[in-house]
Amino acid sequence: MTTNTAIKNYRPDIDGLRAVSVLGVVFFHVFPEWLPGGFLGVDVFFVISGYLITKHLLHPANGKISLIEFYDRRIRRILPALFVMVAVVTIISYIVFIPFPEYFRFSQSLVSVTFMLSNIYFYVKSDYFDIDAREIPLLHTWSLSIEEQFYIIWPLLIIAINLIPKWKIRTGVIIGLFSLSILYSQYLATFNRSAAFYWMPSRAWELLTGALLAIDFIPQIKKPLYAHFTASLGVAMVVASFFILNSESRIPGFLSLLPVGGAALFIEANKPKNPTAGFITKWLTQKPILFIGLISYSLYLWHWPILAFMHTLWGDLTPGLITIALSSSFLFAWLSYRYVEQPVRKIKPALSFTFGLSLVIIGLLSSFAFYGHFKKGIPDRVPNEIRNTVNYFLPLGPGDCAYLHSQMERKIKNPKHKVVVAGDSHSEDLCPVFKTIGENDSIDFVLESRSGCLPIEYEKNSDFGIRCNANFNRLLQLSNDPSISMIILVYAWNGHAESLTDSKKEITQAITKLAKSKPLLIIGDVPFFETPVTQCVVRKAMLRSFDFLTVCQPTFLSAIHTQKQQSAIYQIVQELKKKSIPVEFFDRLPQFCKQDCQTFYDDIPLYRDSNHLTYSGAMVSYQPLREFLQEELK
User: How many angstroms separate the CA atoms of 150 and 164, rounded?
Assistant: First the structure.
């Protein structure tokens, strides 16, 4: 995804295509509802990269392939601007992010970036399209990791393929690799969309599309009219994909052929051997467009962390903040291009210096990242007056959820009762509560959680639905286990209030199925805040004299408002009880709300974000829930 202008036979049309691609990505991140498929600009970047690096490998300046020179060029193209951006982002994160979880997670992501594994890290940790992902400043490096991984493997494959004497067989090998990758991509896009998005093997076909262009797989276009039409069709396909496809589309499978195929048609139509490709190419090679294409790599690098920090400080962005974000992105992109990218391209230090300096910088960044990880976000950097508050954000009782997980060896021998706890991340919040109750009252709690899922049967056309259905089917099996005394459901009911209303019938049927064999206890949710208020209060204290940079919402909610949040699940329970279905409801709101619902108790934070609890927040429910269960399990 690097800006690559200093090559033989410079092609301004490719910089024009880069401009279209990066603008798609940037405007998707700013206006996702207007340009729902703009993120597919990355797919176009992959085609361009595959084309250019294969061209370099097949037609090196000195006439023969040199892996050392190839990697030297890649390092000087990619790493300097990346390192500068990462260094600045690390400094700002150190100042702005609270130690846990923000800076702790940032440190983990920084490790993955330095070792070219951020695509794997974010596959495990973050859905690219999740609302919380907008505050992860290095999320966009996933695509760079894919390219870097491809750069390691592809030159070696090219050398091996070049040993094959016949051009048709060499081409056939590349087509075979392309076919395997796109089929694998389509499979993952159907059954594991996140893996399809983040994994290099499922993206390789997009880079290999560019490689096929580089070996002149497509026959020469001889007539100007055909070249004009091909170039125009290509750009139309790319732009159309930005509007037609979206985050719910099965990509990067066959549907990604729309932007990828469009990019391929445009690149092919503008090859020097073909006639001039007409007005669309002339338009994309105008100076303003070319400027954006030239700074596209740096623009990609800088726009996302700028937006991420602004979301962290201010939440949803106003038109004024969006204007500042876009202006800043272009300014930093130009500075990076002018003072980092261009100077590095003009100098040619010794190869040992290039590799050595890169290793030193990687070592420094990774050391700092590991330090932030093992120090749990470095809480010592915050003012003394809030350091105790910061400690409350540390993980809920270490090992509590692992202790309760169904796969673990049972710790309570000969329990009086065995109880299944099912839910999403809100059930995991209560792990220390269940662990303590279990130890004191000889109850073996078994945790079956799946983040984001409700206890309903989902459609089977997505990896999310498949995972959620597997979790629900597991609950149905456990409900028929004679050793189980009760099933407890703990979900983010208040956060899913709209879904509960829309899926009331499905929720009711699912709960009824579970309650056929076992008594069911539904634990009510905690108050939902619009923003992570407790984190914001800590951040303001950390910023000290610059606390005006972040504006926090009130640290309380109206109890009436919270009761409305909970009304959907409460109504479902009451209707089930009228039908004599064995379901009980434990209301947690009285433990958090009087006239108002608080986020702090005597300066102790009860929340670690907008709706998840700290250890102290979870233990608020310990005694009332223990007494409730003692009565129910008599």
Answer: 21
Cα distance between residue 208 and residue 172, in whole Å: 12
CA distance 44 to 3: 13
Nearest of 476, 425, 379 to residue 613 by alpha carbon: 425
Q: How many CB atoms lie within 10 A of CB 257?
A: 19
- Local structure of residue 446 (DSSP, 8 states): E
- How many residues make up the chain in this entry? 634
- The pLDDT tens digits for 273-291 are 777 768 899 999 999 999 9
Answer yes or no: are the C-beta atoms of 25 and 226 closer than 8 Å: no
Distance between CA atoms of 376 and 378, rounded to whole angstroms?
6
CB 77 within 8 A of CB 356: no
Q: Quick one: how far is CA 450 from the chain centroid?
A: 18
C-alpha dist (Å) from residue 102 to 106, 309, 547: 6, 11, 18
Rounded Cα gap, residues 333 and 303, in angstroms = 8
Interatomic CA distance for residues 621 and 226, integer angstroms? 71
At 585, list the tokens: 């409801």
Note the pLDDT tens digit of each residue in 157-213. 999 998 888 888 999 999 999 999 999 999 999 888 899 999 999 999 999 999 999
Q: How far is CA 614 from CA 187, 376, 451, 604, in A?
A: 39, 15, 17, 9
Is the bond preceding residue 101 a cis peptide, omega within 30 degrees? yes
Strand locations in 442-524 (E): 443-449, 486-490, 520-523
- pTM, full prediction: 0.88
Taking CA 445 as the corner, what is the angle to CA 444 and CA 449, rounded to the nearest 5 degrees?
155
Residue 115 backbone phi and psi in degrees, to 5? -105, 15
- The closest alpha carbon to 78, from 331, 344, 348, 292, belongs to 344
3-state secondary structure 20-76: HHHHHHHHHHHCCCCCCCHHHHHHHHHHHHHHHHHHHHHCCCCCCCCHHHHHHHHHH
Which backbone phi and psi does 88 adopt, to 5 degrees? -65, -45
